[in-house]
Amino acid sequence: MGTTASQLGKDTLSEYQELTFLTKQEILLAHKRFSELLTKDEKDIPNIRISLERILTLPELKSNPFRKRICHVFSTSEHKDGSLTFEDFLDLLSAFSDSATMEIKSHYAFRIFDFDDDGTLDSDDLQKLVNCLTGETDETRLTPEEMRQLITNILEESDIDKDGTVNLSEFQHVISRSPDFVSSFKIVL
Amino acid sequence: MRAESECVKCESQIVEPGGGPRDTFKVRRPCRVMILVNPNSGRGQALQLFSGHVQTMLTEASVPYKLVITEAKNHARELVRKVDLTQWDALVILSGDGLLFEVINGLMDREDWQQAIQTPLGILPGGSGNALAASVHHYSFPSAGFSQTKELLLSCGFMLCKGLVGSMDLVSVHLSSRQRLFSFLSIAWGFVADVDVESEKYRHVGPIRFLMGTLVRLATLRVYQGRLAYLPNTISKTSVETQSDGNTKALLLDSLLPSLDEPVPESWTVVKEEDFVLVLAIYQSHLAEDLWAAPGALPDDGAIHLFYVVAGISRPALLRLFLAMEKGGHLDCGCPYLVYEKVKAFRLEPLTPQGMIAVDGETVEYGPLQAQVHPGIGLLAPMCPTSLPPPSLCRS
């Protein structure tokens, strides 16, 4: 399915509605915002990819601590550079939309937190997760001791099969204890 | 009260950290105990924990008991509502906090609630929410920590066999549907409202520490709008107030609370901020095994410990608060966004349309609520003089 920025055909629009959790209005708005990121020449190229840097200028992503991981997870680029086509962009918005289910959101949350993309959350992934949350400056970061305590506690209790990592089902169980996760885990244009 | 006529006041009294003694009563011997177990609780291991540890302890201490295995939600509540309480000296819950919630509300549902709620209640940890068990352990052994649920279980079991009880505050909670509940642990809104979900699929997974959930919530940190008001704990201890309903039943009055649709009384403090990250009311010391939320709280101090965090706090600062809470150090963090007040009653009116409120770890309907404390109307077992050594030294 190809989409240029200049038009979104009626059939394509219907297909997108069927394939995502997004409403017609949300898809049209996404299309508009995506097009605004393109140069004049790029607008006629089908399946154009926007670079990670440009996507991150979107205000909805700019201040999200996981903005880079989010783009990487939804990018279908062979170069694994976090660049997004319009359809990648729709997949992203769909997973973060109001209508997406707990299963979908927790699945993607897990992938976003899985920094080394190996299918489990190990000690390194958790450290990177915490560092994303505690910010960039030395003042706000946890001390090595605090980090160690935190990671040990998490793994000790979440890691049921004692393999040193948290797998998807263990993670999803945690998510199931906070039902407002679905309404918090959101990106809406 | 039945408890007084049949109990012997304990010779040695618990000495509080502040120095004053606390009254305790010894339950009569032999003490017949009904033990309620939720077989699905905490990794489905509650029954194993019973037969593996608790049963032995009870037998060695010559405590006659009956084991009741609960079959569904509200089974315990219904049972307790109808049971002949003259046959039992204590009701013990081997499960998470959810089952105790059912038992307490079942007792308060009864016509003879005033006597019924004086049935000593015991808790042994066996589920995923063991806040009360952790609190009870803390009250008796303030300097002893524990690293596993099993240690906590042995500690509580040991204390239960010694048979001492102390009084316990209960909090009456009014919801907008006019429903009234009784709570023994906490009311939470916002960031903290973690639900004790015994999800079918993940029953085997067991107690997941709060911290993983904390990180995920930090990642999606949001602000909740609402109005909060409270009655500070400056007035003297209120006594239990009842009112006749015209027949024989005495109703427990929530004299501090006006109707939910009326404004709060002038004596109340209205919080001026309306953007919150969390509001937590707690009346035990621990919110979870590793969350010492209210250092200094006692089960019968007649107070609700109200904490709230206003919007504007950064993620790192909030994370630091929760890390510090493991050792009860969050009040020393000097965080200007965290406020702590001891209150007798409070009202919360959430304005954010989507959210969650949890009472004792169970979700309740989302909407305005108010609550007040009823000091010392329940009896909590076990309590133990601090002169006894912690169980780990007794095990041979």
TrEMBL record, chain A:
It comes from the Eukaryota. SUPFAM superfamilies: EF-hand (SSF47473). The keyword Cell inner membrane does not apply. Gene3D superfamilies: EF-hand (1.10.238.10). GO terms for molecular function: calcium ion binding; magnesium ion binding. The keyword Magnesium applies. It comes from Periophthalmus magnuspinnatus. It holds the Pfam family EF-hand_7. PROSITE patterns: EF_HAND_1 (PS00018), EF_HAND_2 (PS50222). Residues 101-136, 146-181 form the EF-hand domain. InterPro entries: CIBP, EF-hand-dom_pair, EF_Hand_1_Ca_BS, EF_hand_dom. This is EF-hand domain-containing protein. Keywords: Calcium, Magnesium, Metal-binding, Repeat.
From TrEMBL, chain B:
Residues 28-177 form the DAGKc domain. One of its GO terms (biological process) is negative regulation of apoptotic process. PROSITE patterns: DAGK. Pfam families: DAGK_cat. GO terms for cellular component: cytoplasm; endomembrane system; membrane. Keywords: ATP-binding, Kinase, Membrane, Nucleotide-binding, Transferase. PANTHER family: SPHINGOSINE KINASE, SPHINGOSINE KINASE 1. This is sphingosine kinase.
